Amino acid sequence: MPTTVRTSGQLGPALRALRQRRGWSQTELGRRVGLSQERISSIERQPERITVSQLLTVLMALDGELLVDARAPGQTPGSW
Fold first, then answer.
1. Which has the closest alpha carbon to 17: 56, 69, 63, 49?
2. Is residue 48 part of a domain?
3. Dihedral sign (CA 65, 41, 49, 71)
4. What pLDDT, in 10s, does the model give residues 16-32?
5. Which residues of the chain have pLDDT under 70?
6. Does pTM top 0.70 for this prediction?
7. 50 is a domain residue
8. Which position among 41, 44, 61, 79 has the lowest Cβ density within 10 Å, counted as fewest Cβ atoms?
9. Which domain holds residue 40?
10. Cα distance from N-terminal residue to C-terminal residue, the chain
11. Cα of 59 vs its chain's centroid, Å
12. Contact assessment for residue 29 and residue 61, using Cβ atoms and an 8 Å cutoff
C-alpha cells in the first residue's frame, strides 16, 4: 500500500513501517545496508538528516521505491 510523504516528519514513520512489515529490527536493516543500528534509529527519528543515497539504499533493501509526482490538480497544501 503506497504511503504519501510530503514532509520529513512523515518519512521516518513510513520507513519504520516498511521495516516492520518485513519483520526486521533496526539492527537487521542496518546489517543489510551497511549502517549501524544507531544510524537506522537516527534515520527513523530524524529523516531530514539522511542523504539521498542512503535513502535510496534503505528503500532498495526494504523493496520500496521513491516516486516523485505532482499533486492532483486543485489540491492545496491544506488539503493534503
1. 63
2. yes
3. positive
4. 999 999 999 999 999 99
5. 75-80
6. yes
7. yes
8. 79
9. 8-63
10. 18
11. 7
12. yes
